[in-house]
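Module 6 notes. Inverse folding takes a fixed backbone as the condition and produces residue identities as the prediction. Think of it as a translation problem where the source language is geometry and the target language is the twenty amino acids. Below is one complete input and output pair. Work through it position by position during the lab.
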């Protein structure tokens, strides 16, 4: 029954920041999915008879790839596949299911916040037994294998009925279709004070949650409306659609502008939130107050003890390098470990497993904790609600009080998307070449370069190193310019410019962010010549 099918390698199956993301049309090439899956299985050892979790965000091509993955898992010797009903599992829920059922690993089928549909993006990511994205040691092996692969294994079996909860079989392998929401919801109930949040809603607190026609809809309806008692209609765009209803499921101020505008009006709700395609990112907006992801990380870390799951405090905090240093100040005050890692949730895994950090976060709208090994959009929303319920203050009041204690890190990211890859690479090389000469130089009245380097990470747990993780130019006053190329884009290169300026606790906290960062924007342009090289007059996206 097991078939070995001949194939020829593709040269472009190098996993990026988070798995292999490509246009759907690339994935639709004959054997493209099969090659990549076989390259993953060939890079793993010891899964004979073990369980593989499979889930996705419901985007176009999920159904096809899932059936292929099930047949190949059976042919490669897995004992069992657990798959979410209709192929659905949010990324954090998949991470939880892997951990909860002690699976060998899992396949997460998603391109996250990238658009879906026949002309959109698709992705496959392998997660290891701790529930987190495979570390570079594995993703490098997968890429190496993909370059020489000459056959894959599958079985001749009909499709599984993904709609039917319960057990079926493919060859000798058991396939269990599970409800995607149940286990995750139970986990959230162990972490947060659902009674306090319920009382908050019962007292008239209003919220709008935008599931962006993506995976969090079923989870959000269940948790916010059914369990916590928020009125029906609190969750909008709550039905997952293969094309995300032709939307762009990225919870930022560009794609959630209507929500932002609503929250800035007196008639708007008290709280607005959104999550992305696969449910791991979050957007938090209070009435009259957008909370930047970097600030959100710092605030959640500073207040986590107000939620039952973190009552005893947190062991440490980790943030990706481009994320602002706001969380560092919290860690310093709490006297706990602080880690700066490269971009990519996979780099937090070792620190979480070793118990050295409890809360992690990134400027790219991801926050999470040691409850799973992925960032978790709904977790962040629930922790915010828990904090608001206990402190009995608005989001705006909580944010201002935080700045008054720790100071404010003004922060923005300017993205230049779909830039010619060669031009972007040259730009980075040229800035890199300037770095040694920058230290000690003064720019304008108060910007003196304290350090300038290409970030290299030394993992304190397993001793591995990851070089060339982004250019950092730091100034003596705590300001920073960071430049790096995205590892999640699917066309050309995306240049990200991250800008940060620190204003002390007794300083000015009410400036417009773009205004506050104007000198640094100008300096980044002066050093990198972005406009002239790319021909762009302005960034594609400002977050
Ligand atoms: C992924 C990674 C994150 C990263 C983000 C952006 O998130 O898990 O760690 O911050 O991509 O990466 P880049 O700047 O390389 O595009 P997601 O939500 O896309 O899975």
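Target side of the pair, the amino acids:
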């Amino acid at each position: 029954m097991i078939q070995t099918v001949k194939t020829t390698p593709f040269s472009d199956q190098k996993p990026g920041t988070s798995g292999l993301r490509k246009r759907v049309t690339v994935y639709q090439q004959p054997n493209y999915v099969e090659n990549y899956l076989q390259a993953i299985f060939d890079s793993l050892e010891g899964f004979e008879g073990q369980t593989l979790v499979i889930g996705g965000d419901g985007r176009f091509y999920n159904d096809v790839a899932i059936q292929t993955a099930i047949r190949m898992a059976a042919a490669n010797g897995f004992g069992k596949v657990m798959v979410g009903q209709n192929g659905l599992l949010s990324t954090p829920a998949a991470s939880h299911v892997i951990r909860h059922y002690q699976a060998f690993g899992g396949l997460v089928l998603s391109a996250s916040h990238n658009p879906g549909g026949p002309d959109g993006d698709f992705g496959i990511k392998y997660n290891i037994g701790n529930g987190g994205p495979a570390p570079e040691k594995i993703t490098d092996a997968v890429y190496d294998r993909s370059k020489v692969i000459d056959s894959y294994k599958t079985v001749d079996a009909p499709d599984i009925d993904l709609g039917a909860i319960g057990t079926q079989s493919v060859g000798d392998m058991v396939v269990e279709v599970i409800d995607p929401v149940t286990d995750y919801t139970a986990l959230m109930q162990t972490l947060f004070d659902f009674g306090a949040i319920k009382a908050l809603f019962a007292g008239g607190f209003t919220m709008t949650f935008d599931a962006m026609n993506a995976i969090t809809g079923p989870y959000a309806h269940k948790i916010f409306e059914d369990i916590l008692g928020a009125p029906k209609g609190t969750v909008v765009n709550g039905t997952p659609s293969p094309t995300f209803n032709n939307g762009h499921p990225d919870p930022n101020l560009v794609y959630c502008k209507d929500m932002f505008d609503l929250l800035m009006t007196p008639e708007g709700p008290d709280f607005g939130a959104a999550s992305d395609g696969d449910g791991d990112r979050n957007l938090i907006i209070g009435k009259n107050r957008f909370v930047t992801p970097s600030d959100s990380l710092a605030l959640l870390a500073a207040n986590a003890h107000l939620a039952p799951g973190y009552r005893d405090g947190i062991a440490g905090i980790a943030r990706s390098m481009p994320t602002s240093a706001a969380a560092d100040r919290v860690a310093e005050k709490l006297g706990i470990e602080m880690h700066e890692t490269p971009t990519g949730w996979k780099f937090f895994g070792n620190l979480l497993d070793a118990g050295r950090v409890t809360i992690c976060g990134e400027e790219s709208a991801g926050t999470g904790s040691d409850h799973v090994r992925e960032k978790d959009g709904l977790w962040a929303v629930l922790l915010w609600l828990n904090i608001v319920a206990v402190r009995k203050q608005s989001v705006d009041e909580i944010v201002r009080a935080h700045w008054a204690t720790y100071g404010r890190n003004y922060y923005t990211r300017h993205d230049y998307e779909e830039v010619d890859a060669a031009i972007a690479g040259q730009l980075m090389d040229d800035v890199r070449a300037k770095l040694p000469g920058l230290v000690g130089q003064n720019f304008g009245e108060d910007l003196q370069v304290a350090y300038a380097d290409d970030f290299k990470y030394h993992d304190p747990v397993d001793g591995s190193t990851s070089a060339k993780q982004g250019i950092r130019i730091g100034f003596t006053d705590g300001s920073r310019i960071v430049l790096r190329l995205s590892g999640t884009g699917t066309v050309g290169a995306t240049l990200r410019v991250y800008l940060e300026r620190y204003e002390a606790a007794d300083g000015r906290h009410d400036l417009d962010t773009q205004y506050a960062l104007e000198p640094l924007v100008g300096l980044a342009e002066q050093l990198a010549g972005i406009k002239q090289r790319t021909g762009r007059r302005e960034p594609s996206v400002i977050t």
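Reference fact for the lab report: The chain has a mean pLDDT of 95.
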